[in-house]
Design goal:
Strand order of the largest sheet: 10-9-8-7-11-12-15
Bound molecules: flavin-adenine dinucleotide, FE2/S2 (inorganic) cluster
Radius of gyration: 17 Å
Oligomer: single chain
Strand content: 25-35%
Structural class: alpha/beta
CATH topology of the largest domain: Rossmann fold
CATH class of the largest domain: Alpha Beta
Number of helices: 7
Length: 250
């Protein structure tokens, strides 16, 4: 059950171009959270709506969030200092299914890598296929995942790190060589669709984590509804993680 937490900011630092890591002293929230869940952050009185952000780590009873500065809300957030308090509603949403035997493959691109970090932290048999525009963008994520996963596959759009191309161009080869019990994807929708296509074609279960603009975050306003093969669903309450077959009708 979600709650409002009055948390203390332990650190709020830029980790690479345009991306910040926010670390909160929030032991109860950390304990209550499952990989893939998110929080709604009240950033300032000036902004009526809270901002949804994924929980990337709950290690050492601290909640870590990685966010990209996009607009007013995330800009204000990036100016907050350690020692300040932050009003957080969470944990929200369903999260990934962690009841899996065998190996799982995480497939992520851009900020979609943030929620996958929370899976890698809790699951000791995960491998990752990660993609980004350039080496400089991916190096930071590589360092974050390195202690947590068994194996890496990397693509960059410009070929400066790993294989040149998108994650979906390398995925078929990865799925041919390794045997996975499940694939979890988060990133641009076109990437998740391609991942689901390759994965489901090999009868491997696939879960995808979705983003929609949100208001309440609690299933009350219907603002985040999407069409699925099982009817209208709310991304904040029924998701953000869905079985790929429900979303893509493949
Ligand atoms: C479940 C979920 C988890 C997310 N996790 C992360 C994360 O871990 N790291 C991260 O960097 N970003 C994440 N996002 C996206 C993040 O919520 C937006 O980038 C952020 O709300 C932008 O706010 P803003 O005020 O800076 O931008 P503005 O563009 O000024 O925002 C205007 C309004 O649009 C909403 N909005 C804008 N972009 C998005 C978006 N992509 N998704 C949802 N609402 C949006 C804002 O919440 C706000 O209400 C997540 C979104 C969802 C739905
Ligand atoms: S954001 Fe209100 S129902 Fe999902």
């Amino acid at each position: 059950m979600e709650k409002i937490f009055d948390t203390k900011i332990l650190s709020n630092e830029k980790v690479t171009e345009g991306i910040f890591r926010l670390e909160l002293d929030a032991p109860q929230l950390a304990e209550m959270s499952n990989p893939g869940q998110f929080v709604e952050v009240k950033i300032s009185d000036e902004l009526t709506l809270r901002r949804p952000l994924g929980i990337a780590s709950t290690k050492d009873n601290r909640v870590r969030i990685f966010y990209r500065v996009i607009g007013k809300g995330t800009k204000f957030l990036s100016e907050k200092k350690s020692g300040e308090n932050l009003d957080i509603l969470g944990p929200l949403g369903n999260g990934f299914d962690m009841n899996v035997d065998g190996k799982i493959l995480l497939v992520g691109g851009g900020m979609g890598l943030a929620p996958l970090l929370s899976v890698a932290e809790k699951f000791d048999n995960a491998e990752i296929l990660m993609g980004g525009k350039t080496k400089s963008e991916l190096l930071f994520w590589y360092r974050e995942f390195r202690p947590l996963v068994r194996n890496f596959f990397v693509t960059t759009d410009d070929g400066t790190l790993g294989r040149k191309g998108f994650v979906t161009s390398l995925l078929p080869a990865v799925l041919e060589v390794e045997k996975y019990s499940a694939v979890y994807a988060c990133g641009p929708e076109v990437m998740m669709r391609g991942t689901a296509f390759e994965t489901l074609a090999r009868d491997i279960p696939c879960q995808v984590s979705f983003e929609r603009r949100m208001a309440c975050g609690l299933g009350a306003c219907l603002g985040c509804s999407i069409d699925t093969t099982k009817g209208r669903k709310k991304v904040c309450k029924d998701g953000p993680v869905f079985d790929a077959r429900e979303i893509f009708d493949l």
